[in-house]
Amino acid sequence: MARQFTALLALGLLVLGEPQADTLTIKGRVTTPPCTLSNVTVPFGNVPVSEFDLGGNMGTSYAKDFTMTVGGCDLAVLQSVTLSFEGQSVPQIPNAQGLALSNDANAAVGIAISVTRNDDSHTGKGQAVRFDGSESYPLNLSANKNTYLFSARYVRVPGEPLRPGTANAVATVTVSWS
């Protein structure tokens, strides 16, 4: 009787053990990690009104250099990386190259901020940036450099009286890559 039971059990396993086929699907995407941009605060400190000459320029001793750093992405695999600037520009300064001061009850009057590209590694050294987002400033990827040097300074707004006060401004800098 023990033999019959073993034979029946083996026959049952053969019926139940029939192979089945199914599909394995693997989904994913290989991507470039997003580029990030460092937040920057440019501290001017106190600038005397007397520093503005009759032509409206501020003495160069008060200009402040600053660096924007692109991170989080591998520059070696990218085709291009650019920066663009957007903020409220002053209409009296041509080409949207004067950033308006923040609207504050104690804000200075007759002053805007100019930012100039100041980096030997990238094109356009000495040229002011536009604050209307219409221009993009490329990083020199062949130099494998992830920083961009700029210089900021206060400038007079033509036709406006000069009054001292708080002289802060904010612009959005966008990093784009492909």
Structure description:
- This protein has 178 residues and is mainly beta.
- It has a single domain (53-177), classed as Fimbrial-type adhesion domain (Immunoglobulin-like).
- It has one helix and eight strands.
- The protein has one helix at residues 2-16; strands at residues 36-37, 64-71, 81-86, 99-100, 111-117, 137-138, 147-156, 172-177.
- The strands form two sheets. A five-stranded antiparallel beta sheet has the order 1-2-7-5-4, with no helix packed on it.
- The protein is elongated.
- The chain starts with a helix and ends with a strand.
- Pfam families: Fimbrial (PF00419).
- Residues 26-176 form the Fimbrial-type adhesion domain.
